[in-house]
Amino acid sequence: MTVVKWEVRAGAYYDSVVLMQLQRGLLGLPGIVDAGVVMATPANRDLLAANDLLPEKITANPDDLLIVVKADDDTSATDAISKVDELLARRKSSSISQDFRPRSLSGAVKQLPEANWVLISVPGRYAADVAREALDLGKHVFLYSDNVSLDDEIALKKSAREKGLLVMGPDCGTAIINGVGLGFANRVRRGSIGVVGASGTGTQAVTAQIHNLGAGISHAIGTGGRDLKSDVGAITAHQALDALARDDETKVIVVISKPPSPDVAAQLMSAALFTSKPVVIYFIGYPPPARQIGNLHFAISLSEAAEIAVSQLSVSGKWLSANDQKGYLRGLFSGGTLAYETLLGLQASLSPIYSNAPITNYQNLKDPLHSKAHTIIDLGDEFFMVGRLHPMIDNDLRIRRMKQEAADAEVGMILFDVVLGEGSHMNPAEELIPVIKEIQSSRNDIEFVAMVIGTDEDPQDIESQVSQLVNAGVAVFRTAAEAVEYIGLRFSASRKNEFTSVDLDQLKQPLAAINVGLESFYDSIILQGAQAVHVDWRPPASGNERLAALLAKMKK
Amino acid sequence: MDIEQANTTAVSRMMEARPILKAVATARDVIPGMKDNLFLHAGPPIEWERMSGPLRGAIIGAMLFEGIAKSEAEANSMVERGEVEFDSCHHHGAVGPMAGVTSASMKVYVVENAEHGNKSFSNLNEGYGKVLRYGAYSDDVLKKLHWMNDVLGVALADALAASSGIDMRALMSEALHMGDEGHNRNKAGSLLYLKLISPLIAKTMKDGAVMSDVLQFIGDNALSVLNPVMAACKAMTDAAHGVEGSTIVTTMARNGTDFGIRVSGLGERQWFTAPAEIPVGLFFSGFSQADANPDIGDSAITETAGIGGFAMATAPAIVTFVGGTPKDAMNATLEMYEITFAESKYFTMPSLDFRGTPTGIDLRKVVELGIAPRINTGIAHKNAGVGQVGAGLVRPPLKIFEDALLAFAEKYNI
Fold it and tell me: In angstroms, how far is the first alpha carbon of chain A from the final one?
């Protein structure tokens, strides 16, 4: 049994070509056996009747649109009728005049609906508004304009993150998306190295060098220079890292930035540890914590970043998997330089971190007697030494401090050094282990990590020292670098994105862009063979600020 | 207040309106507020002192037609003594091309919006040459007007009375597919009109020779359908007026001196006006730009409703108005999408892959982008009675949109 449903639309004229397309569209829907869509002239009605498609009770005039569907069941017929408007509205953009220059972003989107990017290079005071509109239209933004306020940047990026869209910039000079360069970009071959770049020329230098070394770029995502400052919190860099981590075509990731805020750098590196891809990091002017921590590689120059990235293409790495260590680290050092090197290494992955021997002012622990957050204490500092023996000889101060730290419920790991050799205590393990055991009996959630510095010829018998500590459940390392890597991985919290991921399928679509501002950017996209529409942009309300302000309030 | 929602409502009312040409009747019998000494004119309200040549000429002609004055001189002195009144057609649901003068005895089309119930009116089209709407009032002009009233008007009235009316939206949609834009080019629409009305006329008229005159008059005049089209557009735009909080423009009209607009969310009689500009265009042989009168007529109601200059992409035959190439015509329509709130569900254009025409001018977009609506228009000679001297393109002054925006902001405390 088939079901016939129909709709009469009085006075709705459509050309027969449109109606035939609509009819074909209806026939393509599930469960539809036959369909007839005609202007209800007597001749057309006869035609429907001949095909057994004209219900008897229909009343319609020649000016009326008559839609009839015959379907397997009631639902299919009703569904098909409900799709009529959608089918009628479907139209291609291909027939649209190529030389028309819309004045508005929304006009441009109608002209090139498949556009997935909006390039903005209008004067800074207008740029945020244009970017907001682009995000509202569901487009990624390449924001070349500078002089966009920090507040606007933060608001734009937060809004973009919610929508799963990227805001590259403001002041973003360079990006390469799907092989198409945006802004200033070099012509590089496509490949499997992805770049997250907070530095435009840095990104150019690295991508060019990667090309020159014979490899290629999947995507180079610019973030704008301020993205890695604390205020912004690397919103775009995190999104970009996440996207490249999920992108099958990207095998190695490079992250480049001018000196980031230490806390932001730590979070970003922590995220990078979880990409399970080699990530090469070059924070210009920021001391690398190590050559390598797990899958993270630290470069000391732009060209080295490119070289490491290319070299990692052929390495199938297995990295110590990161863990989810709770609480804070407290490092209690007898060696000042060891404390310093450890702090240097850990500031990359732990944040905030404080010390009585800080590298930057920001890390300064005001009261050395009381730790806060992650803390590295140099117990050999003059502050502690008044009327006391050096902690390499006398463990008393450290033992008391260990107990003090363990009493703090927020502490999850205690790190200490054991420096052997001439002049040092003859059996530090023997003094330290009872304290460790005592703490462990009441706090099984505290992990102990030790770095043992010494040789097999030292008078203390290093093997015995190490085995005593290991037997007491202490993780023992023989260099600061190893300990730093271990701790870094332990503290990298398991990551679940707190944001809507960028849609990879969309990122992989052929780049189509709307350009608002510098016409040369439009020309360059067209030259690269991608689709683009240039907006003939002018300040709103011809620059009349009073009217523009009113319009802004009347937007919604 | 949600402007988007208000505009959605207003534009939807405009699009969903179903103007049906129902009747031809005498103005005093059907137009609300019509009186024997009242003369309706195109555009925003204007006093005699500021009227342009063509408008004054048309009013004098209409007074002679009505027989309330016997001569031009008498008409002038009656006006000066305040014995006649003037008002904007728009205050009475009416529209008229060019001078748009409509008087009590004239036959008018009656269009009824089957969706919302409002009515609109327009006078009958006189064709080309020396005509009242361009301010001509010679004996020939008046003789033709009387024939139109007594013969053509009666024939049309009888024909329509014998039918359920003509669906103007369907007619306009089809005409757009046949190369009309519905304002300056109405060849296809007029033939469709002839096609629909002639069987009805044949059914009701007795005298074959007179019927032949009537059919020939309609068929010869490529503008026959313009006036019912304008009335249909008026019915559509009136349906969209008065939506609280809407920034949709519901009227654009010119009286030969001022260009005026009205906005849906503002008052019924709240006009925003500025001096009308002189259209730029092509001139009949013997005339030049120097002869042109400032912009005049209610026919911009077509653009207000989403056709005319807004539908240039579908009328390649008149591309010369916009620059000369079909691409220019396409771009003219694309430009209007920039300032409109929606795309018509019913008026579509094959050349743009059946995209709907730009519909519902949004005050906000006009001011933000600095793009004034495009209006295709006939050009009147600045002296009364000379007639049409060309056709071309005009845009309203941006200032009236800015003024309207400020008034809107004030009314709604923005």
Answer: 50
Alpha-carbon distance of B150 to B145, in angstroms, equals 9
* pLDDT on residue B324: 73
8 A C-beta contact, residue B93 and residue B67: no
Sheet holding B388-394, edge to edge: B280-283, B388-394, B375-380
Entry pTM: 0.80
In this structure, are residues A226 and A261 in contact, taking their beta carbons and an 8 Å threshold? no
Q: How confident is the model at residue A95 (pLDDT cuts 50, 70, 90)?
A: very low
- The DSSP secondary-structure symbol of B149 reads I
Average pLDDT over residues A199-215: 96
Distances (CA, A) of A421 to A432, A459, B113: 17, 6, 102
Q: What is the DSSP letter of A493?
A: P
Rounded Cα distance between A341 and A352, Å, is: 17
CB A347 within 8 A of CB A490: no
Query: Which residue type occupies A341?
Result: E
Three-state SS at A49: helix
Extract the runs of DSSP E, i.e. beta strands, from B209-327.
249-255, 258-263, 272-275, 280-283, 296-297
State pLDDT tens for residues A485-502. 888 888 865 555 678 889
Tokens of A514: 């709307």
Give the model confidence (pLDDT) of B71-88 as tens digits. Answer: 999 999 999 999 999 999
Do B371 and A103 count as a contact with CB atoms less than 8 A apart?
A: yes
CA distance A185 to A263: 30
- Residues of chain B contacting residue A104, judged by C-beta atoms under 8 Å apart: 338, 365, 368-369
Strands A353-355 and A374-378: parallel
Which residues from A are below 8 Å from B when comparing CB atoms? 10-15, 17-18, 61, 63-64, 85, 88, 91-92, 94-97, 99-100, 102-104, 106-107, 110-111, 538, 540-542, 544, 547-548, 550-551, 553-556
- What is the ipTM score, two decimals? 0.89
Min Cα–Cα distance to chain A from B300, Å = 23
State how far residue B52 is from chain A, nearest Cα, in angstroms.
Answer: 32
Task: Say how far apart CA A552 and CA A547 lie, in whole Å.
Answer: 9
At B106, phi and psi to the nearest 5? -70, 145
